[in-house]
């Protein structure tokens, strides 16, 4: 029997909801200087979110380094580098499974000490192993990485790293690993994996909107009407937002102090709307974010809805941010330390996931910001060749290689929560010889990677029981 399992692996940040601390914040921390890059929040000083709270390694949890291949080319493994990994043999005995966690775009230092997978390991007497992703945490193939080294950072090389690690040592990455290396892996659990790459991604905004609507209907109505009046205003209806007649006055009331070209649907105007929408509301843990922001919104003041929202932004410590700010940060050593630079490269080179306003619900306007706000950074960061057409081609190549939502793997357990803003890009309907577990938000705070933490509702407990049961089925299935 094959004994390898890839579990707890995907390409977007999963934070354990146990006693350990997340490595990248799921929501903005108002006490820190942070920047939002493609769905994740990063500390601009280069630190990770865990601070000094990493649980100490015990006698049963050891950190190791593994000599990993640089290129995985036809010429063998001529060049190597030190990749971090962790091993926990607390429950394991020879002949039992090995559960391998493939970390994504974060520092994996504490993954071995957290997550609900301990319960699965206890049940199946499995060894736990975590492999840190190249170019994240402290697993860098090169010293002082720069844009010129980015060609060494692809999901295909990350999968080859895992395959080489498995051969030697005995979310998306989980599903793709089972697809591309079926003889190395018995089964896989993909938690919140958005396996279908996409350039224009309004689905993230739509789910954020749905979470706000289900959390606080009055708060949602206020946002819908406020952004609706602002969208009408910039499109020519100068009487849609009360006393304001010029864009300059509107911007002043919003306390947005950066330069904006209001003449048409310009990139700077779109960036302003994205900032007004995403800085206070976007979060992978959307429920708690919606609750806290709606409460702060109720505590705001102003003579009209625009001034009210501007004061809310200011009281939240938000006074404007530019594309140049993000671009400058991504060129710093701190951006590589936190993983922000690496994640920006992967989105431009493979995945897209560029957020845009949602034309269906229109909570933050129906056409207030496009995917080009984020997509345009690719050319600024990585060169003139990274036009929209080129990046769209790279996204198409990724889907052609892995299959998108029509992934042709088998014995994969896909897990999603309907409050996860990434779930629209994941496998949420049964496909082939796989299992799908969808946790509805109606019964649980089914947010990003929530199945990795201790259950907070009966629905989540049921989902985790299903995952545990299906692991056992696949472990004993000769077709896997």
From TrEMBL:
Signal sequence bounds: 1-22
Entry GO MF terms: dipeptidyl-peptidase activity; serine-type exopeptidase activity
GO terms of biological process kind: proteolysis
A Pfam family hit: Peptidase_S28
Keyword flag Glycoprotein: yes
Lineage: superkingdom: Eukaryota
Keywords, ordered alphabetically: Glycoprotein, Hydrolase, Protease, Signal
Family: Belongs to the peptidase S28 family.
UniProt name for this protein: Thymus-specific serine protease
Species this protein is from: Folsomia candida (Springtail)
């Amino acid at each position: 029997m094959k004994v390898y399992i890839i579990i707890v692996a995907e390409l977007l940040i999963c934070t354990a909801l146990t006693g350990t601390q997340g490595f990248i914040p799921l929501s903005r921390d108002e006490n820190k200087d942070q920047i939002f890059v493609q769905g994740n929040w990063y500390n601009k000083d280069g630190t990770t979110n865990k601070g000094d709270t990493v649980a100490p390694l015990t006698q049963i949890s050891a950190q190791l380094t593994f000599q990993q291949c640089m290129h995985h080319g036809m010429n063998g493994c001529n060049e190597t580098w030190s990749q971090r990994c962790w091993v926990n043999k607390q429950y394991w005995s020879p002949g039992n499974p090995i559960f391998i966690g493939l970390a994504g775009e974060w520092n994996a230092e504490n993954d071995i000490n957290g997550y609900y997978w301990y319960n699965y390991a206890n049940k199946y007497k499995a060894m736990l192993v975590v492999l840190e992703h190249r170019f994240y945490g402290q697993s860098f193939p090169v010293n002082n990485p720069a844009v010129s080294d980015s060609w060494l950072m692809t999901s295909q090389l990350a999968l080859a790293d895992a395959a080489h690690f498995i051969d030697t040592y005995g979310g998306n990455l989980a599903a793709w690993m089972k697809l591309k290396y079926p003889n190395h892996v018995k089964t896989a659990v993909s938690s919140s994996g958005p396996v279908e790459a996409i350039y224009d991604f309004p689905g993230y905004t739509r789910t954020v909107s749905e979470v706000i609507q289900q959390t606080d209907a009055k708060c949602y109505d206020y946002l819908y009407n406020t952004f609706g009046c602002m969208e009408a205003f910039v499109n020519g209806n100068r009487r849609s937002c009360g006393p304001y007649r010029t864009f300059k006055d509107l911007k002043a009331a919003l306390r947005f102090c950066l330069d904006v070209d209001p003449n048409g649907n310009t990139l700077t105007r779109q960036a302003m709307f994205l900032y007004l929408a995403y800085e206070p509301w976007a979060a992978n843990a959307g429920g708690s974010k919606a609750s806290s922001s709606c409460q702060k919104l109720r505590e705001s003041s102003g003579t009209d809805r625009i001034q009210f929202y501007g004061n809310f932004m200011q009281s939240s410590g938000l006074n404007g941010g530019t594309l140049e700010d993000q671009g400058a940060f991504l060129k710093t050593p701190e951006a590589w330390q936190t993983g922000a630079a690496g994640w920006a490269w992967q989105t431009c080179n493979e995945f897209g996931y560029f957020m845009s306003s949602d034309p269906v619900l229109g909570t933050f306007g129906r056409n207030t910001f496009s995917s080009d706000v984020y997509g345009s950074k690719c050319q600024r960061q990585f060169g003139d060749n990274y036009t929209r057409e080129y990046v769209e081609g790279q996204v198409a190549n990724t889907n052609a290689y892995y299959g998108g939502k029509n992934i042709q793997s088998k014995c994969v357990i896909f897990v999603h929560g309907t409050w996860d803003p990434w779930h629209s890009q994941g496998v949420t309907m049964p496909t082939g010889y796989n299992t799908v577990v969808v946790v509805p938000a109606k019964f649980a705070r089914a947010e990003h990677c929530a199945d990795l933490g201790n259950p907070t509702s009966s629905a989540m407990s049921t989902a985790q029981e299903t995952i545990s049961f299906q692991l056992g089925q696949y472990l004993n299935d000769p077709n896997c």
